[in-house]
Amino acid sequence: MPVAMNIPNALTMARITLTPVLVFAMLVPGATELALAVFVAGMVSDYLDGHLARSRGLITSFGKLMDPIADKLFIGSALACLIVTQDLAPWVVLTVFARALLVTGLRLAARREGVVIPANQLGKAKTVIQSAAVLVMIAAGTGGVLVQGLIYVMVAITVISGASYVAGFLRERRPTVSGLEPAAAG
Predict the structure, then answer these.
(1) Which of 20, 147, 13 lies closest to 80, judged by CA?
(2) 3-state SS of the chain: helix, strand, coil percent to 5?
(3) DSSP 3-state assignment of 105?
(4) Beta-carbon neighbour count of residue 82 at 10 Å?
(5) Cα angle 115, 121, 124; round to 5
(6) Can you give the pTM of this predicted structure?
(7) Tens of pLDDT, residues 39-67
(8) SS3 state of residue 26
């Protein structure tokens, strides 16, 4: 069955298409302005696709699946480039990637059990902080106390939001045994 390519879905696909351009711009010396422009365009497309999908009733199964993939691909590629250019410690990016894999795995496991784990405020804050941190790192590099502080805030919110998804998953999975009465105190 063909996918209806509405504007939000087209913006999601555009973000995926921009990813190799971002990687190129981040890895070519002297292309910082292009990297910034591409990154900002990608983040604006992320905001617009979500806003349009919600406000105009254009949410699709394709968008629910592909939007988070596009986000992870776009931001993850930028973070990976910062490792390649030796501007960011690998452990930072591994933390971000591990959280993404964990939450994706939890969502898949929950779906098999008929449980939906929706995005929460911490997850949305994580995306905003990661986007801001990457933008600052592209523009200003990773030196300086303020940028380093932003990197640590990014890691902290990434870990905390991941833990909140784990807690939510475990809460939803709490086993119940129906028909059994608690033992009488004797």
Answers:
(1) 20
(2) 75, 0, 25
(3) helix
(4) 23
(5) 100
(6) 0.84
(7) 999 999 999 998 999 899 888 888 888 88
(8) helix
**142-186 pLDDT per residue, tens:** 888 999 999 999 999 999 999 998 988 888 776 655 545 555 444
Structure tokens at 11: 């913006």
Q: Where are the alpha helices (DSSP H) in 60-141?
A: 61-84, 90-112, 121-140
Calpha distance 108→44 (Å, rounded): 28
Q: Distance (Å, rounded) from C-alpha 25 to C-alpha 35?
A: 5
CA–CA distances in Å: residue 146 to residues 33, 128, 133, 140, 143: 21, 17, 11, 11, 8
Q: Could you report how far apart the first and last alpha carbons of the chain are, in Å?
A: 64
Domain ranges of the chain: 1-86, 89-173
Q: And the tokens for 66? A: 């592909």
Side-chain half-sphere of 34: how many Cα atoms within 13 Å?
14
**Exposure letters 98-132 (e unless 16+ CB within 10 A, then b):** ebbeebeebbeebeeeeeebeeeebbeebbebbbe
Under 8 Å between Cβ of 114 and 173: no
